[in-house]
Design goal:
The chain is mainly beta. Helices cover 5% and strands 48% of the residues. The chain contains seven helices and 44 strands. The relative contact order is 0.13.
Amino acid sequence: MDGDDLSLARDQNITSALAGQIAGVQVISASGASLGGTAKIRIRGANSLTGGSPLYVVDGTPIDNSNFSRRTSNPSSTDNNRGVDFGNLAQDINPDDVETISVLKGPSATALYGQRAAGGVVLITTKKGVKRNGIGVTINSSVTAENVYILPEYQNEYAGGYTQQFIETTDPVDGQSYNVLNFAADESWGPRIAGQPYRPWWSWFPGTPDYGKVVPLTSNPNNVRDFFETGVTYNNAISLSGGNDNTLFRFSYANVNQSGIIPNSKLNKNNIGISASTKLTDQLTLSTSINLAKNEVSGRPTYGYEGNNPVLSFNQWFQRQLDIDRLRDYKNQDGTFKSWNIRSATNLRPLYWDSPFFSVYENAPTDSRDRYFGNVSLNYKISDHLSIKGVAHRDSYTQRIESKVTTGGLAQDQYSEFVANGSEDNYELLLTFNKQFGNISFDANAGGNIRNNSIHQNFLATQGGLNAPNLFNIKASTDRPVTTSFISEKVVRSVYAAANIGFKSLLYLGATIRNDWSSALPADNNSYLYPSVSGSFVFSELINNSKIISFGKIRASVAQVGSDLNPYLTSFTFAAGVPYGSSAAFTLPNTLINEDLKPALTSSYEIGLDMRFLNNRLGFDLTYYDQHAKDQILTLQVPGSSGFGAAIINAGDIQSEGLELALFATPVDQKKFSWDINFNIAKNTSRVIELADGLDNRVLNAWGWGGISVNAPVGGEWGEFRGTGFKYHANGEKIITEDGMYEKVTNQSMGGLLPDYTGGFRNTFQIGGFNVGAFVEFQIGGQFHSVTKMFNAYSGLSSETTVINDNGKNVRDPLEEGGGVKVEGVLEDGTPHVAYVEPQTLYSDNLFALNENWLYDATYVKLREVSIGYSLPKSLFSNLPIQSISLSLIGRNLALLHSEVDGIDPSEISPGSNAYVFQENGILPGVRSLGVNLKLGF
């Protein structure tokens, strides 16, 4: 894809901008509220037990795409960074610098990129200087406003509490009794909202002007939406380029300054790009490509089921009558903090929740990253057909994260620091030959590479609180602080070769071979070889002067890619423990290492047909592939009698099979009006052929209530959901009890995670000086589990807890008056049965943790991007040094055109670093972006 076409609306995450653009590429993004949250990419489904992720390569330099987001299941009590999505490192790529981006999907395309390319390669080429008179200058500037566009559907008829009765409370100051709500209850099963006089939570704080005030009980339907702000993003970029016959250069600078929709959240990102090449002699050329990035973020919001996530409270534990403006005033005059969730009229400490504004203003984390990646190369032209090139590549970053919990809040005060330094160096030597022998073309290359990876991470956290209020320093730890340190080194040496031969532009045959030696594998088993062979037949060369067929090609390939593992898994290592007095302590490993480990191997074959018609006005590209990932490196549980808890082995075979179709057409191609269409769709199935001996299922990930998990069962699909489900009668009906409770079954298979189809549809129009583009992304099938929806109902917040039943009554009305939720099913013996159940009983006691009820179809159709631009006629500025001016209206995430679930955007449920995107458990809301973009050329 052309870089300028990749994002109509200047998406700053190069990975999320790929969503729906390329057949067979699925992207799961984070909400725009996360300020650069993680975007995950799956190429051709799940191609390993861990799902697989691609290698990113920029101008030949492999770059790291990890992230440092913490998991949200079973979090460490010392890690208050958990639940914050710090984003994936590929966001350090400046989209304005991208010339082209290609996604290499099969091992035949990725074999030369080594063992990390088993999951595909995202290949990025940046813009370079061009020969011209003078220096060309391009300015690209945009400003956009971001707002929440999707939230759950809340009820606005009942207030906070566990019952529909007020609580009578006596004021210790005036001795009078008042009706109050149960503010210690973080649910909304309370009294009906009907203007009754009551005393609100904020009137119980002594010394405030509103102390003792009584107000009518009213609804606040927009209280959640009013918490969020209008975010503003300024995206400015400038580039200078030029050159002559001997030297080419390009320099770019870009700045993104963003205030988020979450109060007190902001991001500042700077990128510098330098590319240059110069002929030192007629034979010797020196080239370089350097990219520098600096990111600084403050107040990056928490996501997921974490106490510091205000959206978790709004959607799962809240009271619907609360006035959000009252919550903004979270400080008392004496500097202490207040919240709505008071324990009683005489105990004003919050029970479960601080004010959401306390969370975002007082406990805001900060993070920063300094990054540079690039290369320097020397190319020597030995002859007209033979050249040799040496390249040094480097990718290096320093990530720093600081987090705090302020003194005086609900949680114990705390401070933590995390610093990670990572680097990768590649040293490459490549010999290239190409020549035409009559009707035969031939090109080949051979080379070697040495790769060094280094990671050094330190984590420090206070323990037992701070010994001085708000002294955010490790030295302020009341108890011995938590300290962890991790150092990793890895070396991979490689040799490789590739050759391609063509005959009369009709037949082509290519082959690659690569051998790696990895320091992470056992010394006697650290070498692995993998080849690929591909061929194509351009049959349109045999069709002369066809007015219908413009081009036709059949292609096929067979390939393998090997992969190894992380360091230090093939020999015993000891971990430093908590010292015993002044003596050092070390812990034994709990995992049995395997000195006979061998590399995993991914094999595939694919065939394809590429056709173009009517002078290239219409065309398609169809691909079928079958891929197997075998001998994967697994960690399995072993009996405790062995002295270990787990063992590492080679096992498994994951098959990924599918079809990909890309269509393009130009229905209209006139001077003043043109219309281009691009459409792609892909179907993939990822199946588990085998695991280890005696193992018929592997749990990939599990979390939460009811035992919900995603699995890899032998003979089944990768990503199968298992958990607590409905019990069904032989006739297919759900079984219920006499009183209308659903019967349950544990460890129930409940369908799969992966979608059946993914794709996108782009329309581009040129109407005179106007350019109009719209891009629609879609996904059909797949599922996700929603903790938000489950608790939204459990806590009485959702609109489904106040609907009108078939008796014409609110479901919260007493059962004897016709209220209740109608539950239909059959009894154990198959007899049809209907019962009416109190919604609080149904949602809190029966449907809670019944995972099947909270699994949702992940199908969606989304208007992801729109751009309407106008290029001013050159005659308007012919006397100025300006070469071009274009102004555009741009928009992202404009509309969720279709979804099987309300209140949640299924395309944005990415939970940080979790490799298995199977549920949202406190998602940040979807964000719509609208703005203008100005582009100037000099």
